[in-house]
Amino acid sequence: MHLRYTIRKNKLEYDENGIPIRKYSNLDPPGDRDTYEKLQINDPYNGYKDIVYTPVDMPNVDVDTQQVYDLWGSEALEKDYPGTTFGCEHGSGKVLFLKQNKFNEPLGDGFWFGWVEKEMPHIKEFIQQLPFKTIRQCSFVQPTAETVPHYDEPINMVPHLREGAPCQYRIRWSKVTEPDSEVFFLTRDSGATKIYPVLPKTTNTFVYDGSVYEHGADRGFNFYDRCQIVISGTIDVPKHQQLLDKSVEKYKEYVIYDKDFR
Q1: In angstroms, rounded to a whole number, what is the distance separating the alpha carbons of residues 161 and 207?
Q2: What pLDDT score does 206 carry?
Q3: Where does the chain have alpha helices with state H?
Q4: DSSP β-bridge partners for residue 228
Q5: Angle at the Cα of 254 (from 251 to 259), degrees rounded to 5?
Q6: For labelling alongside 212, which of 4, 77, 151, 155 has CA 20 to 30 A away?
Q7: How many of the other CB atoms lie within 10 Å of CB of 145?
Q8: CA 159 – CA 106 distance, rounded (Å)
Q9: What angle do CA 89, 80, 83 make, to 5 degrees?
Q10: Is the peptide bond before 166 cis (omega within 30 degrees of 0)?
Q11: Which of 4, 46, 211, 246 lies closest to 129, judged by CA?
């Protein structure tokens, strides 16, 4: 594919101090990043080899999105495995956890819920191949509506994110979007410049930065049409960088660098 990314410019409104008038969704814990001054978007980016986004050199892994939807809505599942679902008020909607959630514990590493081994053990095996030392949150998510620029991680994770940047690993499945018409974007100017990465059809795993760059999506979907796994934790940096090198070599035309946003 010749298309590496799509870039779109948008007109924002600014207040009398030149600060964008915008919404904030980084409110967990309360007050986390509820004002412009608390965001990292104006910090220098020091990610590995200037990489902001790349598809990951991992094989496609299959999942039945209808099965995910059915599990997500299952009262019986929540009864058998308490804590498997959570209603996020900041854009993600209701999420389905694969591991015990330790969102606000940077070094947390919760147990795998028993339903994963029962329903989709291959997903657990796949995730365990990724270069994480600990995983504090692992969940299926799919916002049902547009999501404004935001960070997925609480502010106490930023030092770990900078150590491994880019290290936001995601696995995506979609029946409704094509690689060259992506709705997911990255930005570091509150959405004035949005870059929409292309994810090739030969992998559904990608990684991007969350230490400086915000991200969002122009529209939402239902779980049975499109969903992704969010994996958050501490990275084994040498193994991670080795995988980044392999991924950039294989998918060099899809890689987005910090300089591409300037």
Answers
A1: 12
A2: 98
A3: 65-72, 75-80, 114-119, 121-127, 158-164, 237-250
A4: 141, 172
A5: 120
A6: 4
A7: 10
A8: 10
A9: 25
A10: yes
A11: 246
Q: How long is the chain?
A: 262
The CATH number for 66's domain is 2.60.120
Amino acid letter for position 190:
S
Strand 147-150 to 193-197 pairing: unpaired
Two structure tokens written together for 254 = 């899809």
- Beta carbons of 197 and 182 less than 8 angstroms apart: yes
Token pair recorded at residue 239: 């193994």
**Which residue type does 227 have?**
C
- Asked if residue 236 is part of any domain, the answer here is yes
Containing structural domain, residue 128: 49-261
Given its phi and psi angles, is residue 163 left (phi above 0), alpha (psi -120 to 50 degrees) or beta?
alpha
Calpha distance 29→154 (Å, rounded): 7
Q: What is the pLDDT along the chain (262 residues), one digit of tens a residue?
A: 455 899 999 999 999 999 999 999 887 888 899 999 999 999 999 999 999 999 999 999 999 999 999 999 999 999 999 999 876 655 556 899 999 999 989 999 999 999 999 999 999 999 999 999 999 999 999 888 899 999 999 999 999 999 999 999 999 999 999 888 899 999 999 999 999 999 999 999 999 999 999 999 999 999 999 999 999 999 999 999 999 999 999 999 999 999 998 8
Q: How many structural domains is the chain composed of?
A: 1
How many angstroms separate the CA atoms of 262 and 106, rounded?
A: 31
Are the CB atoms for 220 and 142 separated by under 8 Å? yes
Q: Does 246 map to a domain?
A: yes
Question: Would you say the C-alpha torsion 209, 187, 231, 225 has a positive or negative sign?
Answer: negative
The CB density around residue 212, as the number of other CB atoms within 10 Å, is 24
What lies within 8 Å, CB to CB, of 76 at 6+ separation is: none
